[in-house]
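Recap for those who missed Tuesday's class. We walked through two folding examples back to back. For each one, the amino acid string is listed first and its predicted structure tokens come directly after. Nothing is annotated here on purpose, so try labeling regions yourself before you check the end of the notes.
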Amino acid sequence: MLDVRPILLVNGVLLSLLGLAMLLPALVDLNAGHPDWKVFITACGITLFVGVSMALTNWGHAGGLSVQQAFLLTTSAWVLCTAFGALPFRFSEIGLDYTDAFFEAMSGLTTTGSTVVQHLGDAPPGILLWRALLQWLGGIGIIIMAIVILPMLQVGGMQIFRLESSDTSEKILPRATQIAGSIAAVYVIVSVACMICYAVAGMPAFDAMTHAMTTIATGGFSTSDDSLGVFDNIWIDYTAVLFMILGSLPFVLYLQVLRGKPRPLLVDTQVRWFLAIALFLVLTLTVYQMWAGINGGWQALRYASFNVVSIMTGTGYATSDYGAWGPFAVMAFFCMMFVGGCAGSTSCGIKIFRFQVAHAAVWSHAKRMVHPHGVFSAKYNGRVITDDVTSSVMSFFFLFFVCFAILAISLSAFGLDSLTALSAAGSAIANVGPGLGKIVGPSGTFASLPDGAKWLLSLGMLLGRLELFTVLVLFAPNFWRA
């Protein structure tokens, strides 16, 4: 029988922290004289009551988690936090129904960035801060999950980043918890640095704070319908590019830098691949804009670098409607949705290391075909890739695109056109945010989609953020009989 008491305890603690976080937008609205502060106080009270009750009634049952418990904890934590995080959206002045509120909260906590909120410039400051806070909390949650939980669960090849040679949390958690605390400190420091840089570049203080949160989290929620394009400031654009990249690199390597060991960050092949792919795409889209007469010179480089990094990292900011750049650009940005950043970062998508493992495995297989008697080993960062990692990565690729296809076909059943269905499915499962086309593109929102499509996309965002297997394994009958 599965012991759910440790799961309820952890979920209770997380809900309590989420409830306390609601006090910040309450104070902002109170200071601005906006009545929504009462909404946040009420939502805080409800969330704290449930969270504290769950924690107290299960107190004393903490300890090492089994693999089965870890799977259930990861999914339940994201769903519960989303369900309660939606309360301020439901009852605030913006007046979303619960479907839209849940969609917005899920988009926030999964750092996707898709939105159903229109006229953001008229939204209360508390709601704008809450959207940013959800993404910021989701960002640090993803990093810690990638360090503590996913390697233990051997999801999608993440076991390659296992901290210790153990499949149970009794040995992993003590060291991982210590590292997670250090990374949380780094996360705060980088967020503050981003906020300062935005302010120096000319962004108002409140906007600098909220955009810093969503930039480091590679989430993309903004305070304006025009995203960062509303500022039309080249220094703000390049500040965003810098910190989106920083948010997409492994935070564990930042700890090494702070300890006076920058070499691991400089020689890590995952980092090199990420930067090389980003540079290639930026140069390609820059040349394309100049060749097609869309933008010229430094302007082309500015728009290419910002939008390429934004989409590739899954942030989803926009400074221009790249959907109007022509068919080549549309297809290029569509493919970029799936790339993602590095494992152990706040970014999403397939992740660079999986492309590296797949490339190494295919190249090794090709060499064995040419030299049947040769011995060739696929390697990652100088280490031999084991068969279980290769199998796990290949399974992830297969499942990722199967889920994408099913999601796209299901969305088309709601009457969405092909471009909208495909791009919305891709942006959800890759946690990018904006899709393509007039409806869900950079200049649109997801507000007009049917409720059923929004629930499907919420599931897609959850699947993409939790690396597919973590959620889908719960639907296997053998999981509950284990």
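Example two. Treat it independently of the first, because the proteins are unrelated.
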Amino acid sequence: MPQIEVKKDEPFESALRRFKKKIEQEGILREVRDRKHYEKPSERKRKRTKSKR
């Protein structure tokens, strides 16, 4: 679980920006998008071979 500490007198927007950056670095958003819909193993395989080209 990613966590950030909000510094004293820090605007909420900058803390939110840091949090989003940390989530992006850890790959959490990508994993959530991938798990949103079930993907059959054959579709997953086809997607992998297509991205390697």
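Answers for example two:
The first helix runs from residue 12 to 26.
DSSP finds three helices and no strands in the chain.
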